């Protein structure tokens, strides 16, 4: 595929455990956007340092689209390696300062990130220069209520984080958990549709150019969620269980009831939406992941599919 990205920009496409990493090179100061999951921090460091990355240049700033574990997991390692300041969405500064493991969906959701310090607050509506290009920071609440996306008008390129993927977007909390999240998701998609972007660099998956089709899929998903909040809740738990599975690489089936009983978000969602014994909820989630081909059973373990 013809790559319309400006030459000073490189996207390292990662996976579902680690977000993509965008490197924007500039003689006036190179910028990296997002840093993957902590478990992959050594690979993140190697990619950022590589020929397609900084290639020996210093790192002037690390920027995060939002502060979920799969986007900030390499922050501390990059901060140590380069001594660079870290910029996060302004609304997430207090959460990072306080290291609020619940609001950041860390221990609360069975995830980990090494603590880091945030130096600069990115304000929606402001324009920032990354890699000699001007990027408008735009509020993109929904998946994360503080999230930002970055739009470059010259190349009509959008760095979308988890607000829009080629097929869907990051988990969104059901209305019973956050009544604003789903309406914000729809409003963010409307905002993105209005940008008329030609190219989207998502937080996960390959960059894509058929933005209209991606938005159609995202709007369809949103309508399905609006029609069924229990379905939304199941989706959130399945995604979180899948994330833990990718993190640990295999989970003994016998451990899953305890996982569901001990990681707080499962208990909260179970009480609110399902009212099942933990073992039964675990069994249902595993069954759905296996039927969808996302996971399979190997001996007595659940493994990625
Ligand atoms: Zn996210």
If you had to describe this structure to a student in words, what would you say it looks like?
- The structure is a single chain.
- With 305 residues, the chain is an alpha/beta fold.
- The protein is 36% helix and 19% strand.
- The protein has helices at residues 41-49, 69-72, 75-82, 93-98, 181-195, 211-227, 229-248, 256-262, 264-274, 278-291; strands at residues 9-12, 21-24, 30-33, 59-63, 86-89, 120-122, 127-130, 133-139, 148-152, 157-161, 199-202, 251-252, 295-298, 301-304.
- The protein has a six-stranded mixed sheet with strand order 1-2-3-4-5-6, with helices on one face.
- Strand 7 and strand 8 form a beta hairpin.
- The two termini are 28 Å apart.
- The structure holds zinc ion.
Strand content: 15-25%
User: Quick one: biggest sheet?
Assistant: 6 strands, mixed
Distance between the termini: 28 Å
Ligand catalogue: zinc ion
> What is the number of beta strands?
14
